[in-house]
Protein: Cytochrome P450
Organism: Gigaspora margarita
Amino acid sequence: MEILTFVGIILLFYIIYYYYCYFTRPSPLPGPFPFPFIGTIFQIGLNPRKWAENNLSDSIDIWELYVGPFRIIVPCNAKYLDKIYLSRDVSSSSKESKFFKRGIAAYDEIGLLNAIAFNNNFHKWKRSRQFVTKVLMSKKYHIGFINRSQKIFKEFEEQWDKNDVTILDFSKWVSRYKTKVTFDTVIGQPLYNLSSLDSLSKAASEYIAMFIFSVFVPKIISNIFMFFGFNAMKKDSVFLNGTIRSIIQKRRDEIRNGSTTNFNLLDLLLITNLSNDSEEYIEDEQSLNDEEIEGNLVEITAASIEMTKNALSFLVYNVAKNPLILEKLRAEILKVFGSDTNLMITYEALENCRYLDALVKELLRHSNPGPYNLRVLDSYECVGNYHFSPGTWFWLDHHRIMNDSNHWKEPIKFNPDRFLSEENGGTGEFNKICKNGYVPFGGGLRMCPGRNIVSIDLKLLAVLFFRKYNIELINNESIKFVYRATNHVHDFIIKISQKQNTIT
Ligand code: HEM
């Protein structure tokens, strides 16, 4: 009885303290009323935008929610990003910005402190980021990626070429294609077995979904879920870790014993900074160790599969749905690549495709598969006219920012012309967009290091697909997707047939 009274008193004090903090918070904002321990999880669920659409007026461009005791601010207007996406030079040793942090405790348990995306330690983050960026942003890597991806696409398309018409779930097809390309270009492992492709793609998907779970589910609830669904997610991501670790050790030994290095991120990371006379040398840094490489490869593999496959589904959907856009795209393909639908596509030729570039930019504005970003404030700061204290989380609503009708004309319309200047047949709209009005890859110091490879990937598949095949959408008035840290596309059924010889 005495213990119960004691626990009751502690709880009461906690609740009083919780609401004291809540009612005295700086700059209160609109949002659901929170409860101790659980915050606003029952009102918000795992997708804040849904709640905002049903409960907030369009004029509200910044609001708040709670995860247990953590306050999360949701800015939905470009003007709030100026301070958050403040640029700093990665190579400088100056202290990071006040919004540098993104880390979430749950990720520490599966060994992500050495990687990039969820690393809160500036020096460890900087080290990994420099090595990975050096490879991912290099022209050498881009050319290798284009060549390998085309080879794999050819293997995959053989099946379609045997039939006049193929009906398939594109979301499944693209999961397998992207998993194969990713394992080949990131880890250097050929995968042939369909069930391995499916299970690795699922592991990548669960790994990314875990992010949203870690952000929005209060600890008290996630501990209960650990016994059920969340545990399965964790198992999947650990499975990806285990797979990669043994491959790294094997490749390091092989390279030590004189094996030539191949084109893939793993080999390129293994050799970076082995000697200081290479052109890729990073000053004052030792090469990455196995543990660091492992953390980075897991993260890059998961992002490459899950983010890009969904982007590719949205791309095919938006082009197939807009005959005028398809016509302009095919006209450019004919001009740049000629009428041979099997011609190898080069890096330089892709660079020359202005309309394709605008198409991909519009895709990442209109149907970005990763519509939000998370940053954590680590000291007192003022954003807009509001004051925030250290430890406040910021859930940046990129989707609303890039679809804001105050900045974009008819934002719901899929229109690549906005990214073309008037002299190139477009509307020139993008050139007049306000600062931070277009942020598909975030901004500042932690901007996505995969952005160039994503753009190449999307452009390449658009050419490979639409120069050779007619795509018809089946039962697709709208594309089906569910938010699981990415907009995860499912049941996207299309009909594929070979185009006749000439490109119209
Ligand atoms: C359509 C595809 C993708 C989109 C829309 C996307 C978007 C983003 C965004 C918004 C961020 C947060 C940036 C910030 O905090 O300012 C990010 C970070 C990151 N992305 Fe991507 N990404 C995509 C694909 C990829 C790919 C393919 C890779 C790997 C090759 C990748 C690797 C990363 C990494 C490592 C980070 C963490 C960067 C850091 O914290 O320093 N992403 N991405």
